[in-house]
Amino acid sequence: MEFDLIYNMASSIKKNIKKVIVGKNEVIDLLLVALISSGHVLLEDVPGTGKTLLAKTLAKSLDCSFKRVQFTPDLLPSDITGINYFNQKVGKFEFRSGPIFTNILLADELNRATPRTQSSLLECMEERQVTVDGETKTLDTPFMVIATQNPIETQGTFPLPEAQLDRFLIKINMQYPTKDQGMDILKRFKTHNPIEDITPVANVEDIKKAQESYSKVYVADDILGYIVDIVEATRKHTDVVLGVSPRGSQALLKASEVYAILQKRDYVIPDDVKYMAGPVLSHRMILTSSASIRYGNSNVVLNDILRNVPVPSEEVFNQAGDEK
Question: How much is the pTM?
């Protein structure tokens, strides 16, 4: 698939989502980056900001399978992956697939499930497969997990471990709407829910082609070095206990490639990397206890790193067309 076709597909999906979601252009872009780069998304914010609605609108914009699971403390891993049960009619065990066997899985309030149930997603998200009773089953393609969580409530919740957070390509905060956006929301939903009018604008084959083609975006060696320098800086910063893993650097490269396409470019520039660094890297860093109290989150530290890591020369990217 040519890059302009990927851009056109993404534009159509974005236009569809904007019929329901008000004033979240950057959030929608990040969601599309994850979709095209075969990544998973963690939507985090207070209740009522449209996390679940955004995920359901994306699913309705795509002609593919979609399932939603409400995570609760009593949910079991087999409720996600499926089980082998004895079918008395045929006299043998048969596999009953769980909701994980879909193209898009909405894991609503993921942090309400126990760590045991949360861990059932680790293999699925990273290796795109499920192992039940020693038998490995491959998941459908494309496969995307969109998880939501409320960062405010602590009673009855189980914080996601670092291994689980590292599986998410992007973490998105929805944030409250402005006054004008709030009025638009009231008008839009006053008499009718617009999500009921959403129809698919892309199918499974479109998404597969995009996922197979985006990595052909040109990336100069200087950009690769820039990504590595940023990641290494997270490991050496005095306010960071645990820096970004090699999986994180790969995620930043993938996200930067797709974001370049969404900006109608077939090559990556430093601004693409800097823009995607926050959503891709912030949830992969563990701050010291004093830094956590002082800053609240890792964005302040990450911004400090981006200010201090040398940016590659623009001459490299002005000549990008000649080098391809």
Answer: 0.89
